[in-house]
Amino acid sequence: MSIDGATIITGASRGIGLAIARHLAAEGHEVIGISRSQPPDSDITTYCADLADPADTERVLAEIVGRHRVLRLVNNAGIFEPASLEAATAAQLEAMVAVNLRAPMQAMQAVVPAMRAAGFGRIVNIGSRAALGKEGRLIYGATKAALAGMTRTAALELAADGITVNCIAPGPIETELFASGNPPGSEARKRFTAGIPVGRVGAPEEIAFACACFLDARAGFITGQTLNVCGGMTIGSAPA
């Protein structure tokens, strides 16, 4: 596998983003993280920015592409607030659209010129199984569904330039956020896990592996796709 140029990962300081950063660094990528705080890994070059702020997002992206030849991008950063139809607020909508949709758009816009010049690029957007519908995820699911739609359109527009754009939609993954609501050994976790066909929650490293596949130079014939990494939950539930 040929690895050339730098790889940006947004939200690389923890959870899935950190797992992706570590996996790619181990494969030889020049990893550049964007997050609000420094990750625990000293070998990951990190630029701090608040992706909720469009001006700060523009600033950090301009700084990175001015210093590095970026040929790969992983839009991983996202925020989540539970919201049902009746409880959702305009403020929640604005906040989640900003980080989950507007920031990925800005990131793609920033890296495409160098990719076009190179005749090569790989972009992976991290979506969610919630895009298919899930109670209490009205706004979050909507932003992730929109991100999948943005992925398909960008893939069509960039295909002739040698740039692929794909989406990974994780199901339940063992992150700090998931564990806080479903502590190991709790009845809530047991009930939740019982509905997953493979019988367990996913690991961040499994999302990292899927991401690395899309970023590979040999994956040039795969574009505009959404890969559900969900333990089978998108095809059904575990038998009782």
Main traits of this protein?
alpha/beta, 7 helices, single chain, 16% strand, 240 residues, 43% helix
Task: Give an account of the 3D structure.
The longest helix is centred in the middle third of the chain and has 29 residues, at 90-118. Strands 3-2-1-4-5-6-7 form a seven-stranded parallel sheet, sandwiched between helices. By secondary structure, the protein is of the alpha/beta class. Helix content is 43%, strand content 16%.
Q: Helical percent range?
A: 40-55%
> What average pLDDT do the residues reach?
94
List the secondary-structure elements in sequence, H or E: EHEEHEHEHEHHHE
Number of strands: 7
Low-confidence stretches: none
Major beta sheet summary:
7 strands, parallel
How far is it from the N-terminal to the C-terminal residue, by CA? 43 Å
Radius of gyration: 17 Å
**Apparent shape:** globular
- What portion of the residues fall into strands of 2 or more residues? 15-25%
Please list the strands of the largest sheet in the order they lie side by side.
3-2-1-4-5-6-7
The count of helical stretches stands at 7
Structural class of the secondary elements? Answer: alpha/beta
Could you provide a short overview of the structure?
By secondary structure, this protein is of the alpha/beta class. The chain is built from seven helices and seven strands; from the N terminus they run βαββαβαβαβαααβ.
